[in-house]
């Protein structure tokens, strides 16, 4: 496994619609392993294949550091409620922005054995699922940001100053 280069905003690969995965080959498994390595190395909680330059509908998520999930051809089938909070992206390093997302989502996807699975998430997991799935359609969270992007160092100060701030400054997806 290996660390791959993370593409950053402005790279056209991030704005393309990814292709459905038809089969899981050895190369696909290698890609998935590399995506986890790359995500953990960058202290992220999620990474989508286009962020490493691959236009396939694959994302990896681990919001606790102990719950790795591989999502192949994921689709959101249910959403509920609302949450507004700071969100970041490994392709937009160093900054975060306030985004409103559903507070609960249900997603169907294929696992690495191509079995259909369902995952439900609330709060950070719901946010990460929405964020990663949008990457597969060429969308970035920056399109949804309320107000300005803030520097992560400022965000830490802000959240220390205000208990109301739901800051996830170091959780980039
Ligand atoms: Ni992202």
Walk me through the structure:
The protein has a single domain (12-172), classed as Peptide Deformylase (Alpha-Beta Complex). It has a 5-stranded antiparallel β-sheet, sandwiched between helices. Helix content is 23%, strand content 32%. The chain has 3 helices and 8 strands. The chain is of the alpha+beta class and 173 residues long. Bound molecules: nickel (II) ion (NI). Residues 89-91, 131, 135, 173 line the site of nickel (II) ion.
Strands, helices and their partners?
Elements: H1 26-41, E1 46-48, E2 58-61, E3 69-80, E4 83-89, E5 92-101, E6 104-110, E7 116-122, H2 123-135, E8 146-151, H3 152-161
Antiparallel strand pairs: 1-2, 2-3, 3-6, 4-5, 5-8, 6-7
This protein binds nickel (II) ion.
Bound molecules: nickel (II) ion
User: Strand order within the widest sheet?
Assistant: 1-2-3-6-7
Number-wise, the strands total 8
At the third CATH level, what is the topology name? Peptide Deformylase
Strand content: 25-35%
Major sheet attributes: 5 strands, antiparallel
SS class: alpha+beta
Question: Whole-number radius of gyration?
Answer: 15 Å
The CATH class is identified as Alpha Beta
What CATH architecture do you see? Answer: Alpha-Beta Complex
Order of helices and strands: HEEEEEEEHEH
Mean pLDDT across all amino acids: 93
Tally of contiguous helical segments: 3
Q: What is the assigned CATH homologous superfamily? A: Peptide deformylase
The share of residues in helices is 10-25%
Number of domains: 1
Ends distance: 20 Å
Shape: globular
Indicate the low-confidence ranges by residue numbers: none
